[in-house]
Structure formats: structure tokens, C-alpha cells
Amino acid sequence: MTTIEPMPHGNWTEHALGKLSDAGYRRGGARTAVVEMLGRQSCAVSARDIDDALREDGRTIGRASVYRTLETLADLKLVQRLDLGGGEKRYEPHGPTGEHHHHLVCDHCGNVEPFVDPDLERALEKLAQKSTYAVAEHDVVLHGACEDCRE
Questions:
Q1: CB atoms within 10 A of CB 142
Q2: pLDDT (tens digit per residue) in 50-71
Q3: Domain carrying residue 129
Q4: How far apart (Å, rounded) are the C-alpha atoms in residues 26 and 145?
Q5: Per-residue CA distances from 131 to 6, 31, 50, 71, 121 (Å)
Q6: Any idea what the CATH number is for the domain that residue 38 is in?
Q7: Helix/strand/coil for 3
Q8: Which of 16, 94, 102, 143 has its CA 20 to 30 A from that of 7?
Q9: In total, how many domains does the chain have?
Q10: pLDDT band with cut points at 50, 70 and 90 for residue 5
Q11: What is the DSSP secondary-structure string of 40-78?
């Protein structure tokens, strides 16, 4: 298992704005701001995180607009909605290539770290092939204590 550096989403922002346009959505200020903010993220963030970051940048849009945009992006499969515990959903860009990572979550401080593991991916693929389910996607969340909280 390898902890990864922030994932570059490259053209995810343009891809997402294009898909929104193709689906009939206009480039509204709030929607564009949320998409651009998500395009700069390296891992899963909450609607509150996005709202706070936008306010820090001087963009004051309603939190309801953030939630609506995230739900639209999830419906269009442009973001993955994750339940990492703690009662708050998180969202991260879901690129067209299907590349993804999984998450380590500290149950004490709430820190979330992304990780990749090719062996785990191969095992999950084998399991999916043996299953009678048509597996569309997966996410692995490992819970525990981060290095700081263990000390």
C-alpha cells in the first residue's frame, strides 16, 4: 500500500464543465466556482470544505448551491460521493479514465489520506469477476489512528 501525492486532475474541470453543458446546464457562477474548486482538490472534500474554501477566495455563494451542484455532478458521474464516516458525505472528482484511489481515515482527528495499491485493485477485480453482480465501482476505506494520534 502506498500513500500518494495529490492527484493531478489536469483537465477534469474542463471535462466536467463540458459534460454539464452537454447535459443542458448553463455555466452559472456558483456551479462553475464549485467545479473549479473541486478541480483543484487532491482528495475527498465535504460541501462545507468547498463552501469555506470559496468564502476564503472571496466567493460567497449559498451552501445550498454547493449541495445542488455536488448532487448534479454526482448524478452525472463526474464526482464520486463517499461516506468516510463522521456523518458527512465527501466528494471527489471522478475522471473519465476511471483512475481512482482509496482512503485511510483517522477516527480520532478525522484526517483523510488517499492511497493506491495495485495488488488490492487486482484482488478486487478478481472478486468482481467471480461475483454474480455487475460491479460498477468500488471504494475501500480503512479506519484507524494516524501517526500523530497514535503517539
A1: 11
A2: 999 999 999 888 889 999 999 9
A3: 2-150
A4: 43
A5: 32, 38, 37, 29, 15
A6: 1.10.10.10
A7: strand
A8: 143
A9: 1
A10: very low
A11: T-SS-B-HHHHHHHHHHTT----HHHHHHHHHHHHHTTS
The residue whose grid cell reads 471535462 is 15
Q: Would you state the pLDDT for residue 9?
A: 46
Identify the burial level of 45 via C-beta atoms within 10 angstroms of its C-beta, where 0-12 means exposed, 13-18 middle and 19 or more buried: buried
Own/partner pairs, 95-99, CB within 8 angstroms, 24+ separation? 95/9, 95/12, 95/15, 96/15, 99/7
- Phi first, then psi: give them for residue 111, nearest 5 degrees: -60, 140
Q: What distance in Å separates the CA atoms of residue 106 and residue 71, rounded to the nearest whole number? A: 26
User: Cell 488490492 belongs to which residue?
Assistant: 120
Q: Which secondary structure element, helix H or strand E, spans residue 126, and what is its range?
A: helix 118-130
